[in-house]
Write a structure and sequence with these properties.
By secondary structure, the chain is an alpha/beta fold. It is built from 10 helices and 12 strands. The chain has a 5-stranded mixed beta sheet. Strands 10-7-11 form a 3-stranded antiparallel beta sheet, with helices on both faces. Helix 5 links the parallel strand 3 and strand 4. It holds the Pfam family LysR_substrate.
Length: 291
Amino acid sequence: MDWKRVPSLAALRAFEAAARTGSLSAAAGALNVTHAAISQHVRALEREVGAELLHRGPRGVEATETGATLAAALSDGFGRIAAGVEAARRARGVGPLRVAVTPTFAENWLMPRIGRFWAAHPEVEVALLPSTALADLAAGKADVAIRSGRGWPGSECLLSARYAVVAAPALAAADPDPARTCWYIEPYSDEIRRFAEAAGLIDGDSCVHEQPSNALTLAAVRAGHGLSAQTLPNVEAELAAGTLVAIRILEETGAGYHLVPAPAPPHPGLKPFAAWLRREAKGVESAGAGA
């Protein structure tokens, strides 16, 4: 590689941040520099490559076709650099196995079981990273993620994700009409809404309240305020305890909970943790609780 032909790292970082955020101001904030510095770096890079990379407008910036190609390559490259640095740091000493997981799945499925893993593998420290946002595995933000969806490159399906329409016992006893009963969902639960609409449970006249978290969604349902569609692994304990009642089980959705490893060299604790997860998931599927 002829490094003399490669633009400065500062210019490349400035452009990538601007293209990713769609804003010179946001890029400046992300890199802790001034708006003027970002603008100067981008213009210098455009002069060096001989092409316009960003369209400037009153509402921000947008990558040109050439700029979008360069931005994608830079994002991938910076992600690989971050992962490599993280791997080098780990070589000095193994830290905890960082597991990115949604708060609801962590609270209702993982935590009631993880004591068995700790008992069998006291040498493996596990750090749960609960968040509804997808962890940036390529950037080394976590060692593995447990995600709900239809799969990702390199992922492994642990559990199928059938949905249960749940209600408080008193509301369930009244045999409510789902289309005429209030629903509680999270703002990003588009898949749940689609399945409920396809099953005829929600229509254009339905009352739907969006809650900022699944914890608040379930709190509203427990209080008898309405219904919610939840994956069976998320509510298995409450269904068993009788605090919630499943008034309907939706058909197989094709979605599930997937184990998604980071692309970096695997953490030494990942192999036993993944094997334990498979055993736990197999037990649930065999019992019919998550099938």
